[in-house]
Structures are given as C-alpha cells and as structure tokens.
Design a protein that fits this description.
Cyclic Phosphodiesterase, Chain: A; four-stranded antiparallel β-sheet
C-alpha cells in the first residue's frame, strides 16, 4: 500500500477585511442561482500541486521558504463565468507583474520536489459560486482592492458537503519566515 496523499496547492488567502469587501461586492451584484462558496474558502490558487505524498510535503515547505516575492495590490474588478465547470468567478482585468513573478518563482522552487504541475496558463480568480447552470447577465461591480502580503500552502480536505480548505503554512512576501504552522 502506498503513502497517503494530500491534495495541496499554494494560494493567496484574503484576510477578514478583504473577505468583507468581497462579500459586499457579491451581495451588490445580486446574483441568483448556484451554490455560493463560503467566505472562509475564498482564495486565489497560485500553483495546484494535486495529490502529494506525505514524504514530499517537507520539500514543498522548504521550497516555499526560498520564495521571496514582493507585496502587491490585486484589483478584483471582473466577474466571469466558466460554462464547462459552471463556476462564477471574480478576477482582475490587469494582472500585477508581482503576481506573475510569484507564480513563476513558486513553480521553479518546487521543481526539485518532483511533483507534476499543471501546464495550463495561470488565471488569477476567486471562485464565488459553483453549479451555476447559466451565465448571469452583465453586471457592474465595485472593484475590490486586495493588498497581498503573504501566500500559503493549503490542503483541500473532503467533507460531506464538498471540500474544506486548511492552511498548512504561510509566508510573508518580501521575507523568508514561516507565519503559521498547523
């Protein structure tokens, strides 16, 4: 029997103030239908790692410690819809260079950990609603400014109602120290 696998990814996780701003924006957009993603699960996936055996987690944490990145502002100003996956998401019309650099640094840093990474282009977004069968009509929204100062290694845990996300460890951008550990 093989090693247990954990479903992991690197992500940006909004703080309480940013979640409040996102919630207000979502309420003002007056969207109907689908299954709203709980506020505490909102995040931007930076690098999806998939099923990772326990013996590789330490390598990922060590790799993340080497990533410095720089704090930046992410303006979430665009609602989008993916028909195939029936997801409503919030994204940015202009990706900050610091965000793209962070993603590239993370991908390069985890290469020695021997994890097969998805090769799809990175698209920064926060999933807001799942199982939305029809594209909503055009909506004007108030942009949400998110001051990004850290990134996290996250674990996706199955639950009766879907999934729950747990922070494994977080790092400040521009520094090299772990912020929290689970």
């Amino acid at each position: 029997m093989g090693e247990k696998k954990r479903r992991l990814f690197f992500a940006l996780v909004p703080d309480a103030g940013e979640r409040l701003a996102l919630r207000r924006m979502l309420e003002s957009a007056a969207l109907e239908g689908g299954r709203r993603v709980p506020d505490e699960q909102w995040h931007v996936t930076l690098v999806f790692l998939g099923g990772v055996v326990d013996s590789r987690v330490a390598c990922l944490i060590q790799a993340a410690r080497s990533v410095r990145g720089q704090p930046f502002e992410l303006i979430l100003d665009r609602i989008g819809y993916w028909r195939r996956s029936q997801l409503l998401w919030l994204g940015s019309t202009a990706m900050p260079a610091e965000l793209q650099t962070l993603v590239e640094e993370l991908r390069a840093a985890v290469a020695p950990c021997e994890i097969a990474l998805d090769d799809r282009p990175f698209k920064a977004h926060v999933t807001l609603v799942r199982d939305l069968r029809r594209r909503p009509g055009p909506r004007s929204i108030d942009p949400v400014a998110w001051r990004v100062t850290r990134f996290s290694l996250m674990e996706s845990l199955p639950t009766n109602g879907g999934v729950d996300y747990r922070v494994v460890e977080s790092w400040d951008l521009g520094r090299n120290s772990a912020m929290e550990s689970a």
